[in-house]
Batch of 4 targets.
Target 1
Amino acid sequence: MAKTHFTAPERTLLWLVAIGFFMQSLDGTIVNTALPAIAHSLNESPLRMQTAVVAYALTMAVVIPASGWLADRFGTRRIFMTAAVLFALGSLACALAPTLNMLIAARVLQGLGGALLLPVGRLAVLRSFPKDKFLEAMSFVAVPGLMGQLIGPTLGGILVEAVSWHWIFLINVPIGLVGAFAAKRLMPDLRDAKVGPLDGSGYLMLTVAMVCMSLSLDGLGGLGFQHVTVLVLLLAGLAGLTAYWLHANKVSQPLFSPHLFSVPSFRVGILGNLFARIGSGAMPYMIPLLMQLSMGYSPAQAGMLMLPMALASITIKPLATRLIHRYGYRYVLSVNTVVLGMLIMGFALMTPEQPLWLRIVQMALFGAVNSLQFTCMNTVTLKDLESHQASSGNSMLSMVQMLSMGMGVAVAAALIASFQQWLGVTEITGSANAFRGAFVCIGIVTVLSAWVFWQLEDDHAPGEPGDALAKKAIGPGEHDH
């Protein structure tokens, strides 16, 4: 395939959106390596700190459904600027937080900004680039976003040892302010003149559902809820989802139209994202904690060992498009999901005595497979949507991504707490076997989610010319990240 050439204005927009993606994804994981240090500073247990991670992801999941409507109503430029300012203010509040509860509140404010950076930036690209440039455009902006997510633990560990944990948040303040200024000058002011009113009732139902289901999972871990409370929250969440589905089928302009699920690739992609990302979301939280609490690594050492993931992720990126062209989404995603789950289970075998080269290879393999997973499943989700479905479908995908990331952390914390109780472990430093049990369980869930992707239509057509097969495999409306 010929390399796509972008004009100067197109490249400027891509860099602006890429910086926004980088900030949002960096802060989703930079806290993970610093959790033990933050816990010590705030006089909390490290295994209770996952609430600060879940609060950020959950806030993003709650706000994202309204992001498409806000961008259509007020314009991409104004919303992107507001998002950058909120992100900077929330970051400053996190650095100044004296208690865990204050940190959680500051993470919520930070999440409000982060929730708009990702989907609004992607929507600007979606509406600014023709279909023949879209895959390459989204691949361009996805790399910094993926880098932010994967180097976050590394940078967090280095900052904790070099200065203090406060700087993992303070570095966002100037970046956010510069981003807001750049957006005012460079972001196109795209909006939909025909946008209708926001579906407030549906938004409330969906918000209640997500918050209740996330709290039910988090309640099994750090929050320590009684089982009856967890059950009530879970049932309330399921009731909220049911109520929303019934509501969306009877109103003329729902937040997310049920007709989106009439597109087979979107239906499979959304469900696959939800379950497959639980494992991907749990790993940046679990691996640095295991290394520091049970294997004797310092924050900087644990962070540095995450670097092979980032490097492998970037290296494998160009391979994703070629694999899709050659084998189709169904085969690539099904096989890759199984491999991803097995690699997650492989982390249960980590011990302090293993050689460094083995750890580097393990991290690099996971980074490469995880990167390929992100690219393929996000692309297949949105590739067949019509132009009038793009904003809604884009927002739903972003919501599911953040919800599953928060669920991954909450599930990991709940599994660790359950295995600790089952094994009779009370000391944090002796929780290695609890971590191992959690890795195996999460890996199994990831492997089983391959069945979701197997429901895709077989888009592999052996013997077809490359251009014809690429056209079938990629299709219109390509997305990544």
Note: The radius of gyration is 21 Å.
Target 2
Amino acid sequence: MNTVNQTVAIVTGGGSGIGLAITEKFIQNNITTVIVGRDPEKLHQAKQNLGTLCIPIVADLSDLEAIPALVKQVITQFGRIDILVNNAGINMKKEFTEVTNEDFQKVIQTNLVGVFALSREVVKTMLPNKKGSIVNISSMAAQYGIPKVIAYSASKTAIEGMTRAMATELSPQGIRINCIAPGFIATDMTSKAFNQDVERKNKALGRTPMGVMGMPGDIGDAALFLATDSSRYITGVVLPVDGGNSIGF
């Protein structure tokens, strides 16, 4: 059971990439962090590396029916949820006319509906405490148009709108909602994509004024800031962490 002063966070997609970097920052700051993901091996590895404050739970957030039980499990074990980071997401690269209805719905289900449903259940547990912080993860795909990722772009643009709507409704009750829009971050996923498409990599870096890719830890630092009282008077913002990419030419 949670001790009175222990802060408890949930990070979805916390087993790898940006989610893992956020989890690391939280744990370095003594935050008990429940990592949720679909890959038991990745979660187990993260637990091995990060120790007792890292709590893995295997779950698929596209399965909406299972979300209330997931939240109940965390509350039963720790008594509270102070922070939620909605980081889990899927992408699909396809020509616009080749994207099927099912393709589109699959991305929307995980990236948007899953985020909504989990946030709703977590907010129910935050309201009695009149305190909480939710950090959503958006994308440069919501800042400007990127070809061949129509469903992903739609989902991330919606996340930004949802962030503002949630912040307006919930901030009077002590719950802050903010969003991070990462630029090009050096993860296994982006490295793989860029190594197969050098032209795209050069284009990405060419429009990033700082001229380099970010590190997962850069998103971790921003998430820690937005999740904690360091940002106690900030709500409803979308913070680009992108080396200037979103304003670059």
Note: The two ends are 51 Å apart (CA to CA).
Target 3
Amino acid sequence: MWVLFAFGSAFFAGITAILAKIGIKKTDSNLATAIRTIVILIFSWFIVLIVGSQNTIYQISGQSLLFLILSGLATGASWLCYFKALQLGDVNKVTPIDKSSTVLTMILAFILLGEKITWIKFIGMCAIGIGTYMMITKKEVKNKEIVDSRWLFYAALSAVFASLTSILGKVGISGVESNLGTAIRTIVVLIMAWAVVFVSKKQNEIKNIDKRSCLFICLSGITTGSSWLCYYRALQKGLASIVVPIDKLSIVISIVFSYFILKEKLTKRSFWGLIIIVIGTLVLLIK
């Protein structure tokens, strides 16, 4: 049964990008991020209540709380950049760059945490890097159409902040129940997201969001929460060495759905890039 939860985690994580892409088509990406974070916050605390870790919140040290807050700020920055990138670019190009945060995380872990990088891991990291580069192909421009390339900048920032999230979270989660740590971080993300909305004076636009966009924005939050629920349930009952690689395959789900639902074309170069990324991800799990 836990294997089904692992695939459920990958599935929900994979379609999150698709639902968000549809939802932010006519909506400011920062406002959309703030709205969906409300849904995610509800899910994260729901998980805490399920596992019964809410009573341990008073046992969190000041240092752990500080790093959890910093991790939350990095998460918020990553989400804001990721959904801005999705609004400007294609899912099948933004997602691989965001997933490359795995490589950045390993490099930072080596530099800051002293974690070792074996030759196997190095090969896996190189494969992910090469695959990501292959998937960043320029669109064919017809009739001198102006293409907004800012998505690449925001996608890269998303990956950087996502990797910082992992490093800061690694330190902050020490001695803290993981689900509770995630819930606390989500509170920080919510505050940050709405702060950005109010600073940019986008809060009044909430009344202009059409029902369809609002629905897909909320659904993207629900799928993120569902992914978390399935992921932690799978980890609780199954083997991490199997759950983690299955969850990482969410990139395949995202790109398949972007092809069939969003009609985003996948070139041969991008296809082989995806294959190399998947192989590189699986190689990283070899001990």
Note: The chain has twelve helices and no strands.
Target 4
Amino acid sequence: MTSRKTHLDTLSISLLLACCLFWGFQQVLVKATLAEVAPAFQAAIRFAGATVLLLLWCVWRGVKLFRADGSLRAGLLAGSLFAAEFACLYVGLQYTSASRLTVFLYTSPFWVAALLPIWVKSETLRPVQWLGLACAFAAVAFALREGFSAGGASTWLGDVMALVAGMLWGLTTVVIRASSLARVSAEKLLFYQVGVSSVALPLLSLALGEKWVGSFSPFTLTSLVLQTVVGAFASYLAWMWMLGRYPATKISVFAFLTPLFALLFGALWLNEAATPSLLAALVLVALGIVLVNRKSA
């Protein structure tokens, strides 16, 4: 039985920063690849490839994925929530801007902080930690506020879909921490999610009428490989490993860094302005992370 830690250490913080950094970069990759590969089809390729890589990893490491351990029902629930989250994201992008969608998506830690203590008392946040969570979310909204000016009458549906996606992300974390999934290996935990997604997302792509292409430019091929190997396999495996060993509420707050990293990479790659408000938001996110992870006296 793996012992759980009550606070984040240097290893977990390093892994979290690396994951959020790549996830922010991946958003720019996805955007740059849209001209050749539709978004839901991109996700389908990514998760199908990640499922194959995970199976090979488990064979190499001797991890038993199909041994009965009482986690099937919870695993299928977590996988369905994970796949539904991505379905909401891709459908929502048809109605709202990426910046608006990102703001609403990153309400996920609020769902974790509000619901998880019902089942896991050790995850209860103190008032100063709630303040840190609020600081982090306010920073994201502040940095992405320009996206709200582009909103129109039809954006409400996309906003709702993004809020639902954030809720589904939070509920996935809650299911993982409050069920038998908290005791399974990181590999099996990830398998439930990428496995279900690799089945559900191609169906979503077909339902959306996306065009499936079979040949890719060198850039697109590189993008898909990075999204699959680093994004859907390595970074998610690290995330699942950390969920099994560290407080989920403190891990989740780091997710606020992802959209800010995405804005930074957008500025470097897509020549989008890195405004003073973005830099101020980064400071607020850092403050929020410090407050959420502050040890009690």
Note: The chain is about 70% helix and 0% strand.
